[in-house]
Amino acid sequence: MTAPLPVPEARAPATVGVAYAAGAYLAWGLLPLYFRALRHVPATEILAHRVIWSVLFLAGALTLLRGWGSLRAGRLRGTWGVFATTTALLSVNWLLYIWAINNGRVLQASLGYFITPLVNVVLGVVVLGEPLTRPQRVAVGLAAAAVVLQLVGAGTIPWISLVLAGSFGLYGLLRKRLQVDAVPALLVETLLMLPFAAAWLGWLAVHGTLTFARGELPGDLRSDLLLAATGVVTAVPLLCFAQGARRLRLTTMGLLQYLAPMCQFLLAVLVFGEAFTSAHALTFGLIWAALVVYTFDTVRRLRRLVPAA
Q: Could you read off the pLDDT of 297-307 as tens digits, one per residue?
């Protein structure tokens, strides 16, 4: 057997980075399978467990990675208002996403995360005063046409998609103001959610409606284990994402981000059997066309910046 060829030093970090980032986005894309297995548990209880177990797992991960230094009081001074807002936005996003999965709305959830990059463009214009390029105007126009088409064709506003995209877009915008890495920042946010999560589980326990640790049915142990593992499925993809982001260009990360909503889309149509009408086909077609225009424009502008830098 011949020895494997050495990987060039310039390509090795990128290869590892793609593996980390693709793993993170695929994990997020396949998350509906996980939450669908907890369909019998109310979304509010799943969210509460996700918060509590995420705090425990993230605290352990930061201890192993020696990452507590980024949470020194000096670095957090003046950020609590921003953290309170990002925590509220993340809570809304998580709760609605879990509810959408467990109520057969995965298609709308995937549409929301396809729209998110375009929502970020709009927020950049409205909040930061950034100018729109001509391709960005086309992309935003196509996305707006898709929403109108959904309203006309299906008779309803895709509110789940819009709330998911809006909450996550605002969350990302505000997180840019925080000089804290992704994993420690998520720990702060889940810690802020922790009292509410614990109080809600306590209320459910007092009223005898808590699903966790009941042990009355044969499948209860499996359900308990899945609830306890929500911290792992929340934190591990984030850790992979952080490792990938350190090794890859922004352009590559931008292209890989579509893996998650594409997985959700395929699960909704092929696995969960959600209805995919002609209105849906036109809506998603317009959104995908908008993303092609937006991505092409982003890649072209970043390539121009690299030689200048």
A: 877 776 666 55
- Distance (Å, whole) CA 100 – CA 95: 9
pLDDT at 286 over 60: yes
Q: Please write down the HEC assignment for all residues of 181-229.
A: CHHHHHHHHHHHHHHHHHHHHHHHHHCCCCCCCCCCCCCHHHHHHHHHC
* Cα-based distances in Å from 290 to 2, 20, 78, 155, 233: 48, 27, 38, 22, 31
What is the distance between the alpha carbons of residues 62 and 71, in angstroms, rounded to a whole number?
10
User: Cβ contacts of residue 187 below 8 Å, gap of 6+?
Assistant: 55, 58, 59, 62, 71
Q: Of 23, 48, 18, which Cα lies nearest the Cα of 231?
A: 48
Q: Where are the domains of the chain?
A: 15-308
Distance CA 188, CA 80 (A): 10
State pTM to two decimals.
0.87
With beta carbons less than 8 A apart as the criterion, state whether 117 and 172 touch.
Answer: no
Round to whole Å and give the CA distance between 255 and 253: 5
| pLDDT of amino acid 6 | 43
In whole angstroms, what is the distance from residue 200 CA to residue 202 CA?
5
Report pLDDT for 249: 76
